[in-house]
Write a structure and sequence with these properties.
CATH architecture of the largest domain in chain B: Roll
Helix content of chain A: 10-25%
Strand order of the largest sheet of chain A: 1-3-4-5-2
Mean pLDDT of chain B: 89
Number of helices of chain A: 3
Low-confidence stretches of chain A: none
Shape of chain A: elongated
Number of helices of chain B: 7
Radius of gyration of chain A: 16 Å
CATH architecture of chain A: Roll
Number of domains of chain B: 2
Largest sheet of chain B: 5 strands, antiparallel
Order of helices and strands of chain B: HEHHHHEEEEHHEEEEEEEE
Radius of gyration of chain B: 30 Å
Distance between the termini of chain A: 12 Å
Structural class of chain A: alpha+beta
Chains: A alpha+beta, B alpha+beta, C alpha/beta
Oligomer: heterotrimer
Distance between the termini of chain B: 64 Å
Largest sheet of chain A: 5 strands, antiparallel
CATH topology of the largest domain in chain B: Thiol Ester Dehydrase, Chain A
CATH topology of chain A: Thiol Ester Dehydrase, Chain A
Chain lengths: 132, 313, 385
């Protein structure tokens, strides 16, 4: 069932465990073969503390967080994200969200924050359309 | 115009790159790999019945996969007319050798169905800089990708990277922490206050002429005109006169929500400060509070408030 | 010498109101000024005075260069953010009345949403400002939070509630819904939606806070005499005033005896009524600055429409509706139309006087306009000739 959305609704907090397997499998599934997403030695040599999640995965996680909550009939129209602290392997990425705008044509804007121990990894908005 | 700006103008003027076709049409195996890895359980991508029910008329691809279809792959190379690659080369040459992505704004005009074959173009939107950032001096480079199926635009992305010259001290984490708090400006008229907080004293300006107590302080007494400010040390107790529970936007150096209270001290002046040690919902006007000195670093100690012990909170 | 009746607004101009103008602030300023001159039936070469806000990034000379305005004999800027809005017109009226200039254009242009956003924590504002050092470092760093501190005390003293604040937002959005130029055109809200909107700085919710906008507005002022020869019916400046109160700060006047009024607006009100010879009962339309809803209630009290603490009762029974006793912000205000630092409210007042507004109130003789609240501020009374 698709959920009824109201302005101000909070999304339940969701935790994503960014295990090394997660970081690597999602990088490969998004066809991002940059070494910092799968080779820890090279990532460290380049100044990172570990391998880290790639952007296409972050975009996917933000989309998933909203549609898991809104239901399969919600249509995703836009995902706008601003990137902050890296999400390293072994981090827990915690997602928070809230419905912040509503338009008459059934379009809603959900604000999403993805936080790691280093700080905000991603802050963004997802625009979804919910059929009446 | 700097050379970077000249090159940026030239690259931007060249407009869109030629459309580059995705390696594969939209296909179920790649979608399955993606939903497995991302952990996306939305059935419209994998269950024809659910896709039908949601009005898609067949299986669709996750919108957030749009960029995946046109990624260069393991041995991919940028095409010669790729404006982002060209701009990166210009900035590399100018000494801005590091890169970090800052924004990705994707708009999906419609869902893609299995078998559709997308192509992508790129153009350079703008190059802004040089800017001083926490990472070092750099340029913000914004490009726009457009995905087509045939002549139809199906998705767009505005993508921004910071191309920067790494700061002398790499990953200046130690610097980031003090920069995260907003520091007061201190001058002749106000330094006694901050010297006091460092010593654990909450000082209130007292006119050396007429004895008027005043906060915030100033150099000339508005009552008697004297320019002989002195101070007394407050007992540091008072009541909440008003307060705010701050939720948005985020404030440097603080986790939200937090409470800022305007406290009326027993001496009669009012003073702002963060109120801790109490749930935001339990704060009320009239709550008895006392001062706590919170050391930020060697140069700054902030006065903050907490509920007074035995104050009936 | 009185300014009352000496000068008039003869042209208004604006860009579209958006969230991302896609062009420079100077271009927005130049477009709005040109639009206002066209509206007035004047040429850039007629202009000899320009006034703006200190906060505006476009200098008078830059605007003059773009418009091809040859010579300026009067140029001026006003401090204190949105408090400057009506004061720009006051400056223009004084310049015209004293012969310092003949045609003065007031303008405000910014990319406030896509560029520098006032709603974010203004870290830079604290640096170098001793006044701000008593608030920003303590975590009070946004306009919403600064107004919320005031609003909490007002609620405590007078029993006002979040719903009372919400009624202002609802009426503004109702008016915006039928104004095609408004950002929130056809998007009214209910009080329930206000009550379920998220907290920004308690007791303020998202829908208590005005939007953030990109855009520009310009206002052309000349002598009342010359105005009568121009193409539009003049909106005569019956009164124009600035005001600052005792122990005044910018947004944080928390150290006065009482924290439930806006004494600086009281200063403005006294001057407006004295100059115009009018009173609250003569006002046909009120365009009140509405960056945050609580201050609209307090303004009604300071301007003399009702007693202290009574605004929440005053606004009941449709008082602020288009057909009510005191129609409020028929354009939708800054909550509904756009946030252009109060200048779009002056343009609306001119349209109401001309009889050309999207939501035109019937038989308008006098319109009251106010500027930014919580800061040293200003106000205007415009009237038919």
């Amino acid at each position: 069932m698709t959920r009824t959305l109201n302005l101000g609704d909070s999304l339940p907090e969701v935790h994503v465990e960014a295990t090394p397997t997660f970081v690597i499998s999602s990088a490969i599934a998004t066809r991002d073969f940059q070494d910092v997403h799968h080779d820890r030695d090279l990532a460290v040599a380049r100044g990172s503390k570990d391998i880290f999640v790639n952007i296409l995965t972050t975009t996917g996680l933000v989309q998933r967080y909203v549609t898991d909550w809104a239901g399969p009939e919600a249509l995703v129209r836009a995902v706008d994200i601003r990137l902050g602290a890296p999400c390293y392997a072994h981090d827990t990425l915690k997602f928070f969200g809230q419905v912040v705008e509503r338009f008459d044509d059934g379009v809603y804007v959900v604000e999403v924050v993805g936080r790691t121990p280093q700080g905000d990894h991603v802050v963004g908005t997802v625009r979804i359309e919910v059929p009446a | 115009m700097t050379r970077v700006e000249e090159e940026a103008a030239r690259i931007a003027a060249a407009g869109e790159s030629a459309p580059r076709l995705a390696r594969d049409p939209v296909n179920l195996p790649m979608v399955l790999n993606w939903v497995e890895a991302i952990g996306d359980a939305n059935p419209v991508y994998t269950d024809p019945e659910a896709a039908e029910k949601a009005g898609h008329g067949g299986l669709v691809a996750p919108p957030a996969m749009i960029q995946v279809w046109t990624m260069g792959g393991l041995h991919g190379q940028r095409s010669s007319d790729d404006p982002l690659g060209a701009m990166m080369a210009v900035l590399d040459e100018a000494g801005y050798t590091s890169v970090v992505a800052t924004n990705s704004d994707q708009t999906y005009h419609r869902y893609l169905r299995q078998g559709e074959h997308v192509a992508v173009t790129t153009r350079l939107d703008d190059v802004v800089g040089p800017k001083r950032t926490a990472l070092g001096e750099g340029w913000f480079v914004t490009t726009r990708n457009t995905w087509y199926v045939g002549d139809e635009v199906v998705a767009e992305m505005r993508f921004r990277v910071l191309k920067f010259r790494p700061a002398e001290k790499p990953a200046a984490v130690a610097e980031a922490v003090p920069a995260a708090v907003i520091r007061p400006a201190v001058n002749h008229d106000t330094e006694y206050f901050w010297q006091g907080t460092a010593l654990g004293e909450l000082r209130i300006q007292r006119c050396g002429g007429c004895g008027l107590l005043r906060h915030p302080p100033g150099p000339m007494c508005p009552e008697c005109g004297a320019t002989k400010p002195t101070h007394l040390v407050s007992d540091g107790v008072g009541e909440v006169y008003s307060y705010v529970v701050h939720h948005h936007p985020r404030v440097p150096g603080r986790a939200t929500p937090f409470v800022v209270a305007l406290v009326e001290l027993d001496e009669g002046v009012r003073m702002l400060g963060e109120l801790t040690g109490i749930a935001p919902d339990d704060v009320r006007v009239g709550l008895p509070v006392e001062v706590v000195f919170t050391k930020v670093d060697d140069d700054l100690t902030m006065p903050t408030w907490r509920p007074r012990a035995g104050g009936g909170s | 010498m009185s300014v009352s009746g000496a000068a008039a607004v003869v042209g208004i101009g604006a860009t579209e109101f958006s969230k991302d103008s896609g062009r420079s602030e100077l271009r927005l300023a130049a477009e709005a000024v040109r639009d206002a001159l066209t509206d007035a039936g004047l040429e850039p070469s007629d202009v000899d005075g320009l006034v703006s806000f200190t906060m505006d990034s476009n200098t008078e000379i830059a605007v003059a260069r773009e418009l091809g305005i040859p010579e300026l004999t009067f140029f001026s800027r006003i401090h204190y953010g949105g408090g400057a809005a009506c004061a720009t017109v006051q400056q223009a009226a004084m310049a015209v009345a004293t012969g310092m200039a003949e045609v003065v254009v007031c303008y405000r242009a910014f990319n406030e949403r896509s560029g520098h956003r006032f709603g974010q924590v203004q870290t830079a504002a604290a640096v170098g400002s001793v006044d701000n050092s008593w608030s920003y470092p303590m975590g009070l760093g946004t306009p919403a939070a600064m107004v919320a501190m005031f609003a909490r005390r007002y609620m405590h003293a007078h029993g006002a509630t979040s719903e009372d604040f919400g009624r202002i937002a609802v009426v503004d959005r109702k008016h915006a819904a039928t104004n095609p130029k408004a950002w929130f055109h056809e998007r009214p809200i209910t009080l329930e939606e206000h009550q379920s909107s998220r907290w920004i700085a308690e007791p303020l919710r998202l829908l208590d806070c005005c939007q953030e906008s990109d855009g520009a507005v310009a206002i052309v002022v000349t002598s009342a005499e010359r105005a009568r020869d121009l193409r539009r019916p003049p909106a005569v400046i019956r009164a124009a005033a600035q005001g600052s109160g005792t122990d005044q700060f910018t947004m944080t006047s928390y150290y006065r005896d009482d924290l439930t009024g806006l004494p600086e607006m009281g200063v403005v009100a006294k001057a407006l009524w004295r100059q115009s010879g009018l009173g609250p009962s003569d006002v046909d339309v009120a365009v009140l600055y509405d960056h945050f809803t609580p201050f609209v209630l307090v303004q009604l009290e300071e301007l003399g429409f009702c007693q202290r603490g009574e605004a929440r009762h005053f606004i009941a029974d449709g008082m602020l509706e288009l057909d009510g006793g005191l129609p409020l912000n028929p354009h939708g205000g800054q909550l509904g139309e756009a946030y252009v630092h109060g200048m779009n409210g002056i343009a609306e007042a001119v349209r109401q006087v001309r009889g050309t507004a999207a939501n035109q109130v019937r038989a308008v003789a006098h319109v009251l306009v106010t500027a930014g609240t919580g800061v040293p501020t200003s106000g205007l009374v415009l009237g038919v000739d």
